Amino acid sequence: MTNSINELEKDATAIFVIGTNTTDNHPVIGYKIRKNVRFNGAKLIVADPRRIELSNIADVDLRFRPGTDVALVNAMMNVIITEGLEDKDFIANRTENYEELVKVVEKYPPQLVAQICGVDAEDIRKAARIYATAERGSICYAMGLTQHSTGTDNVKTMCNLALLTGNLGKPGTGVNPLRGQNNVQGACDMGALPVVYPAYQAVTNAEVREKFEKFWGVPLSPNNGLTIPDVVDKAHHGEIKGLMVFGENPMVSDPDLHHVGEAMDNLELLIVQDIFLTETAMKAHVVFPGVTFAEKNGTFSNTERRVQRVRQAITPKGDAHQDWQILCDLSNRLGYPMNYSSPEDIFAEIRKVTPSYAGISYQRIEKTGIHWPCPNEEHPGTPVLHGEKFNRGLGLFHAIEFKEAYELPDAEYPLILSTGRSLFHYHTGTMTRRSSALNEFMPSNEVQVNPETAARLDIVDNEMVKLITRRGYIEVKTHVTEMVPDGVVFTFFHFSEAAANVLTQAKCLDPVAKIPEYKVSAARIEKI
Amino acid sequence: MIKLTVNGREIQVPKGTMVLDACQQAGADVPTLCYDPDLKLAGSCRMCVVEAKGRPNLMAACVSPAENGMVIETESPDVVESRKIILELLLARHKLECHTCEKDGSCKLQDYCYRYGVTDSRYAGQGAHFGMEDPNPFFKRDYDKCIICTRCVRVCDEITGAQAINVKERGHHAKIATVFDGKLDDSSCVFCGQCVMVCPVGALTSKVSAGKGKSYQTQNVLTTCTYCGTGCTFELNVKDDHVVGVTSVRESEFSPVNKGALCVKGRFGWDFIESKERLTTPLIRENGELRPASWDEALDYAANKIKAIKEKDGPDSLALFSSARATNEENYLAQKLFRAAIGTNNVDHCARL
Predict the structure, then answer these.
(1) Cα separation of B350 and A452, whole Å?
(2) Using one digit for the tens of pLDDT, what is the confidence trace for A182-210?
(3) Residue A327 belongs to a domain with what CATH number?
(4) I want to staple A281 with a disulfide (CB 3.0 to 4.6 A). Which of A83, A112, A272, B42 is the partner?
């Protein structure tokens, strides 16, 4: 997030929520948005194909066709420019390439886009006016925006909208991705990515690489590494021979699970380090038992870049070892010595190579976590980014044309399938399906179907059906609900026995981010 | 600024400060039941009554603005007598089963009865019995213990915004209910358990923690939630080296993101930690089956295989999926292991998935 969570409760005067079912997937952030709307009169725009909980209190509820995000937001920008609501000072002083944006956006008048997106043109205008005229407008999004073959375009389009209206660099504004995992922010910050070392320092930059070579005392590869989908493909082809999976479960979370399963079976070596025998661990050659968050010390960085302490409450179960200890033991056996006395000792090293964390210490975050960037021990941290200037200097407008999703419905697969999370489960279910109350409350998957779709298919609520795509099928019970529009169905990905990712495709990913298109697959439902 | 005297001590407070706040600033321990600093004032329980010199009636301190020249007594004989009567009235409909109650030791009603020596109630006998048990797996609703402080109603409305519950009926028959007095599952309840957090008595208690330890038997460890990226902090309750519950920390200094508010997963989704299915020993595949192994055996096996693959096909034939669930320290070491010890940038994690 460019801004911090509590600004959504107090500072934002308009909030544009797109592709995030916030009250289900980031419930505490959802409470804050709702509080701001109900008690402070903040305006709320919801753009989501589904009728989510926040739709009930929205000033504008844009239930648009899945995959048409760029068209929708281009049309909002068309309205803003046509009606002269753009922030001229901000555009002049803080941005470049505005002319290119104008040229593209001209092609997206609301009356045309209304047909593309399946929404009312007047609602697009209303949404544009609310966001553009707000004193402090905040954009929140999650995987509903990003998990598309055009995910990068979608995010850039949201940045365009914020730049156009000057909604950046002040409390209550910003472009705010709500990240879905406790430490996905930190894993990125720490360089658990194929192209960067810690703090997003490029592995292909010779100067940076030299710094790390000196610090780590070994020569390092100058080549960008592979992303997860590429690794899976190359394992399938036999080019990747050995894989270590640490605290992940690709056999449930990754697209096209038949393909993933074949890739895993093809490996000469699969090492899994986890707390349970996950679907992925079942395929492993060797399994290391690690520990849960309750048994370890360390830090997590949340979605607002706040680095917070994790504290050990109990001793590890059985002969499970601390995860950091396992990694050190393996490294030592590979002839590269790693000797640390504690997680705090590791953090001390992190600070030396991660400029944005340099000023953060366990002592400083004993009570309250600190937002990076925090370059030195006197620095208070940075809840709001881009106050004076952007990292690259001026904010760059990207002229982006709308592209349809890769797999559109047709006669054989007439429905659009979208996947996501439930309030009652988390990711691949490794933890929540072994949490007694959560699993008792929601023990199995469902597919949400609009009543009109259900009537056409002659199916009723709570009926077991086959949900089918070109990749395969799952058997799942229906939940007939107006939450999804006619022609769109939605299912959860937590359940390995009826796994949504059997259905999703791994062929056409976003070309830049390599994110799979979980929000649009062509599907059909058959009675059993 | 306003000047007033509390228990003989003069203090100054800004205009608009409530008497309760002023008393607390003056160091007086005024008992409260319906009052919650994060919620709208109800002023209904009358536990916080204090005496203001020259006023005919005792005043509820939480809803009375401080005035210049006020002389307040927080434990005068009239105040104490009044509080005793209030406690007796509350006890008249409160099922006394402190010995088996989850709230024993952290119950405000119990504390205040102890403080004022109230053992039983002269008003008992005519009360309504509710006895409704909600079938949800997260928390127990025992309205025979409810004192109608309405903190649950207000927190559900004001913090969570679910508006699932309200007060039904009046007087002795008043009870907390969902619309049409049904099950929580049929209401707009999201099972966040904020109501459990604010309940001052044993009317709302976690079913997941039931029977596992009373508050005075546990140590509490402040930590950060393991689920979504919001970064809520809370305390893990530990008894005999087992996690037995999660409780909120409401001070923003320790809970800057959530101020104690949680969701159903954070508050009730912790017992996987204690699951019998946890991996407790390394495993090695042999003849197609995973079998238990020692750490030395498992680590040697993995290291030798990695070395052999690296030798044969080069470092870029190896890859790591690191973890968005693991700590910064662990992710740092994991990428360092693959970059420095093995020599490949094939390092990723499920940020996209």
Answers:
(1) 36
(2) 999 999 999 999 999 999 999 999 999 99
(3) 3.40.50.740
(4) A272
If asked whether residues A362 and A506 sit together in one domain, one would say: no
Q: What one-character DSSP code corresponds to residue B229?
A: T
Residue A521, domain CATH: 2.40.40.20
Strand partners, B286: B289
Residues A146 and A192 in one domain: no
Q: Verify that A152 and A73 share a domain, yes or no.
A: yes
Nearest in space to B207 (alpha carbons), one of B184, B227, B229, B225? B184
Q: Which amino acid is at A478?
A: T
pLDDT digits (tens, 9 = 90+) for A461-480: 999 999 999 999 999 999 99
Is A217 found in the same domain as A77? no
Question: Do A184 and A130 share a domain, yes or no?
Answer: no
Q: Let me know if A332 is exposed, middle or buried by CB neighbors in 10 A (0-12, 13-18, 19+).
A: middle
Rounded to an integer, what distance in angstroms lies between the CA atom of residue A382 and that of residue A380?
Answer: 7
| Residue A352: Cβ within 10 Å count | 11
Give me the domain span that covers residue A55.
Answer: 7-178
DSSP state of B159: I
User: Chain B, 193-232: which have a CB under 8 Å from a chain A CB?
Assistant: 207-208, 219, 221-232
Domain annotation covers residue A219: yes
CA–CA separation, B351 and B335 (whole Å): 15
Query: What mean pLDDT, rounded, does chain B reach?
Result: 96
For residue A41, give the CATH number of its domain. Answer: 3.40.228.10
Question: What are the pLDDT digits (tens) for B265-302?
Answer: 999 999 999 999 999 999 999 999 999 999 999 999 99
DSSP track, A403-420: ---SS---SSS-EEEEEE
| A 341-400 residues inside an 8 A Cβ radius of B | 343, 346-347, 349-350, 367-369
Q: Do A426 and B191 touch (CB under 8 A)?
A: no
**How many angstroms separate the most distant Cα atoms in chain A?**
67
Q: Which uninterrupted H or E stretch holds A133?
A: helix A121-133
Report whether B218 contacts A167 (CB < 8 A).
no
Residue A253 falls inside a structural domain: no
Q: State whether A148 and A125 are in the same domain.
A: yes
The stretch B120-133 carries a mean pLDDT of 80
Task: Using an 8 Å CB-CB cutoff, list chain A residues near B208.
Answer: 436-437
Do A17 and A154 belong to one domain? yes
| Chain A environment of B263 (Cβ under 8 Å) | 27-28, 423
A-chain residue closest to B277, CA distance: A276
- Same domain? A163 vs A195: no
